[in-house]
Amino acid sequence: MTNYKEKAVAALLVTTMLGSATALPAPAWANTTASADLKAAKEAFDLRDLGKEIKFLGENTISLKNVQLIPTKGGQVLYTTFEVKNKSAQALDFYPYWIQMQSTNNARFPVSFVDEGQGNKVLPSSSKTFSYYTLVPNQITAEDLVVRLIKWDFTTANYQRQIYTFKLPEKFVLSPIEKGKRHAVDVDGVKVGMALTSSQMVTGSSSKQVRLRVSQINQGLRPVQVPNYEYVLRSGDGYTYPVTYTPTDEPQNLLPKLEKSINLTAELPVDADIESFELIVSEPKEELTYEFSVPLASFDLGLADQDQSESTGKGETHALEVDGEPIGTTITDVLLINDGNNRDQSKIVRVSLNFENQGVKAVDLPAYRYSMTGSNGYTYPVTARGNGADTELRPKFKKSIDLIVELPADEQIEDFELVISEPQEEGSSQQSFPLASFELDVEQLYLNFTEIGRTTNVKIDGYEYELSMENIHAYPAASSFDNILSYEIKLKNPNNYTVPFPQLGGRLNFIGQQTVPAKALEPTESSLYANQEVSVHMWGKVPDDVNIRQLIIHLQDMQTTEEGQTIDSGDLAVFNVLSRNIRLPQVAHNDAHQSSYIGRESTMKLHSTGRYSVSGSNIITTSFLVENKDNRPIKVPSFQGYFETRDGDIFPAYLKNKDQLISPRGSAIVTYWTELSTDMELRDLSLVLGQPLQEDSEIMTNAVSFKVTRDNQGIPNPGAPTYHSDVTFSHRLGGVSITIGRMMPNYEQGNIQYQFSKSRTSVIDDGSEKSLTFEVVKSNGDVVHTQTLNVEADGNSKSGTEYINFSPDDVQYIRVYENFENGRRQIANFSMYQ
Predict the structure, then answer these.
(1) What distance in Å separates the CA atoms of residue 31 and residue 17, rounded to the nearest whole number?
(2) Which of 117, 573, 581, 763 has the smallest CB count inside 10 Å?
(3) Residue 671 dihedral angles phi and psi, to the nearest 5°
């Protein structure tokens, strides 16, 4: 059994009667003091000899450190621990001494010794603890027991001599340890600080659920294996309830100054007086004469004084724990939206909730349950948006979700709080345990919104127009840390006569944050003909730190004053973008994309993605096959954009193609490239392309994101296949095939026969010129000659012979590289000899 030196006296514990959560009848040993007076009773009783040093055999002392009555099968175990201090200069042999246990009416009980293998000798100026126990009837109480120290003496008539009779405590109960305070328990000579650090309770219709967290910290100088302690909840009138937790198969190794926590749950009757309950922590059961566990500590639950209405305020952070990592949870915005047509029936509340991983490893956010609870006790379900399959949250990253709830119109939102509860297993009827609650500080907004994509009629200077909003998206700005938010206003003249082209403007209102102006592309015409419809491109620069999902867009009629100032004359429409996903549309890896910027029917599709090595970095290329499916020539598209890594880093995309037309039913290869450092993550790489709004402008419309690598895959580094000298080598570069063969060496030179041909006769290749580099390599790896071959490939097929001059001594093979900008990649390795 574990050493119990310096252990505090704990409360009584039932360990063998925990087969059910149902309360057991109060036994004879129970403290039947009313729960309201329990603490006062514990603090008032006389400890008597508990802890006092009693002298014996000169200056040596013995003290009663622990006395317990522990329920077990067939009765109660009277368990005692004594500390013996040797204050002499010689070793003290405690073997002749014994502890005698009996009742006040002289009924003796057989006593057993807890043999811990430590021996009976106490060295000079040191101490040892000795533990003894016996079984007594259930009817025995603390007042009925007598404990004596005796010494075996065979010169006396009864072979024993009484040394001292201990005055036992009035009750074998001490005040519980306050929540949050540590209690030191001894584990193999190392002090382990134990504390109840968290306690929560939720009351359901038929029971109370209690959630506790116990912390253990190694306060010693060496690692220690902490056993799987036993836990139970005990009421003031003696009823005990099992505690559920998952023990480990083996004791946990706890390093010095490190801390671990254990989560405990228990179910209590719905009418249980939680103020009277204590958490009892005990040693694991051991097979001695009787099976029992020794209590180590009792903890006050701290629920009696807990303010159940205490909530986290708006903007304040509450730390949730997911897989041992702290997740900062904050309400960033609360918006009360009343549609003008429904204002008297209900209220729509949208809450923006932000999660931030403040730990050191990635976690998956649980599918928490959310509810809105009022001070009147009414609870309403909450719908979460943005809480889908993408649940991974990496360290220092943030994730926002929007919560929507509908409340009766006569309810005051200030009387409600948002409650976050644990996920609920499918099919479970058990009430979810609440983890946190948040106050609601509401900014009210009463607007008649126009939904995106829906047409509305407006009047400007007496003329009627029809307008709608579509194609809203956001993307990073290339020249700053801002984001660009762009959208289109579809504007139509529904009249049978010409009307002026209105001057449009607006503002982007990020609720509870800030407002930024929105600009419109200057129109090329001054009027709209009868039934004419046009698209007006609008955009605004948005600071990177605003929540782009909290957006309301105001479309305004702009007027120019006599002084030349432009002012708005009021809202034409207000578009509700709240909680909408305004991410760029994404084109899957093998899907074709159709854009009006290319043509009515024409498409572009990912052709290939490759990488080239350059000193200290990689050049990434992405080629698209553009097919003209229209009945007229189209121009090779000059999209602008950027590459984006899975971590959100962006790099400018450069276009490499010729400014020319593609004939009907023809096609072209268009290549975009960028340069990245070699340590950059290339998995899940995307290329965002859009139609430039103006020349040399970072504003673009109709932007779309192409997945240029497959899911969770990077860009493979092409290998270097080996070919013999009489083998023909074919390689495809963009829309061009290269054939190289007959690399026959003689004494002074080798010759290369090559042919460049289009893989499709109608394909116009990008860049038109192909560049290859040949390296002559000796057996030791030294490059003795380098030669570059440039061939125009956009006209007819090219073929010819080039010569490489080299010394025949020790030449083993010729490397072939394909060149791109300042980088290259190896595509072949020709052996000079079979």
Answers:
(1) 17
(2) 117
(3) -120, 135
Name the CA dihedral angle for 370, 374, 380, 386, rounded to a multiple of 10 degrees.
-30
3-state class (DSSP) for residue 536: strand
From 293, 52, 45, 302, select the one nearest 176 (Cα to Cα).
Answer: 302
- CA pair distance 217, 236, nearest whole angstrom: 29
> What is the Cα–Cα distance from 286 to 115, expressed in whole angstroms?
12
Share the mean pLDDT of the chain: 77
* Residue 280: Cβ-neighbour burial (10 angstroms; 0-12, 13-18, 19+): buried
Contact (Cβ atoms closer than 8 angstroms) between residue 254 and residue 218: yes
- Can you tell me whether residue 37 is helix, strand or coil? helix
By C-alpha distance, which of 688, 531, 665, 689 is closest to 597? 689
546, with CB counted inside 10 A (0-12, 13-18, 19+), is middle
What are the distances in angstroms from CA 331 to CA 170, 327, 370, 396, 655? 53, 13, 13, 17, 43
Q: What is the largest CA-CA distance in the chain?
A: 133
Q: Give residue 377's region: left, alpha or beta (phi > 0; psi -120 to 50).
A: left
Reading the block at residue 209, the tokens are 């659920």
No. of helices (H) and no. of strands (E), the chain? 1, 67
Most confident of 170-179, 522-531, 653-662: 522-531
Task: Pull the structure tokens for residue 154.
Answer: 């065979």
Main-chain phi, psi angles of 556, to 5 degrees: -125, 150
Question: CA–CA separation, 83 vs 65, rounded Å?
Answer: 7
Percent of the chain with pLDDT over 90: 10
**Cβ 301 vs Cβ 196: under 8 Å:** yes
Phi, psi of 505 (to 5 degrees): -155, -165
Strand order in the sheet with 650-652: 586-587, 700-707, 686-692, 640-644, 650-652
Exposed, middle or buried, 296 (CB in 10 Å: 0-12/13-18/19+)?
Answer: buried
Taking alpha carbons only, the member of 243, 361, 232 closest to residue 297 is 232
Q: In this structure, are residues 387 and 423 in contact, taking their beta carbons and an 8 Å threshold?
A: no
Q: 748: which residues sit within 8 A by CB, 6+ positions away?
A: 805, 806, 807, 808
Sole residue written with tokens 């109608």: 762
Structure-block tokens of residue 439: 């106050």
User: Residue 452 has which token pair?
Assistant: 């995106």
Q: Report pTM.
A: 0.45
For residue 514, the tally of other CB atoms under 10 A from its CB is 12
Q: Residue 481 above 50 pLDDT? A: yes
Position with higher pLDDT, 497 vs 616: 497
Cα 315 to Cα 353: distance, rounded to the nearest angstrom: 10
Closest CA to 33 of 298, 287, 237: 237
Of 669, 532, 510, 668, whose CA–CA distance to 577 is shortest?
510
Closest Cα to residue 547, out of 441, 420, 444, 399? 399
Sign of CA dihedral 704, 710, 714, 719: negative
For 693-749, the pLDDT digits (tens) are 766 677 887 788 898 887 666 676 655 455 545 445 566 655 566 666 545 555 456
- What Rg value do the Cα atoms of the chain yield, rounded? 41
d(CA 807, CA 676): 38
Strand 686-692 to strand 112-113: parallel, antiparallel, or no bridges (unpaired)? unpaired
Three-class secondary structure of residue 696 per DSSP: coil
Cα 517 from Cα 541, distance rounded (Å): 8
Q: Name 456's Cβ contacts closer than 8 Å, sequence gap at least 6.
A: 450, 466, 467, 468, 573
> Would you state the structure tokens that stand for residue 799, as one six-digit string?
């073929």
Contacts (Cβ under 8 Å, ≥6 apart) of 8: 66, 174, 183, 296, 297
CB 510 within 8 A of CB 555: no
Give the angle subtended at the CA of 190 by the CAs of 186 and 191, to the nearest 5°: 60
